[in-house]
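User: I'm curious whether this sequence folds into something compact or stays loose and floppy. Could you predict its structure so I can see for myself?
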Amino acid sequence: MNRELLSQKLKELRIVNNYTQDYVAAALGVVRQTYSHYETGRRVPDAEVLYKLSGLYNISVDDLLHITMDVDRDESYDAPVPSASSTELSEYLDFYNEPSNRKKYMFATPIEKELLYHFKKMSEEDRNEMIEIAKIKARKNPEKEK
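Assistant: Here's the prediction. I'll summarize afterward.
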């Protein structure tokens, strides 16, 4: 945020609307001197005051702060393609938030849920291989079976 641009904008808006500093300060719930400091750039309004100012002048906070960007309609502003991990997390959450799965797996621990989620995405051959690996791992740690 450019302090100088904001202070200029506040003064211009006040004058265009034929408001006094006293009036604007009262509308914001601050003393006139505080508001005067906003117009001179000595102080920067907090978020609540910015919100009130945008309502008073019927403009967006973006416009008030001069952060509204000019959009070139010929250029694409598409969101970036989700990463594999974010897509996988989204699929994982969708899977467990589905009502039938939520009830089915309600007593599973988080690690069991994660294992089941990935297991269901595997081919039958990979599933069988994973079961064999799990059996080998289980034999290495017999005390964990309790």
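Summary: The longest helix spans residues 124-140. The two ends are 61 Å apart (CA to CA).
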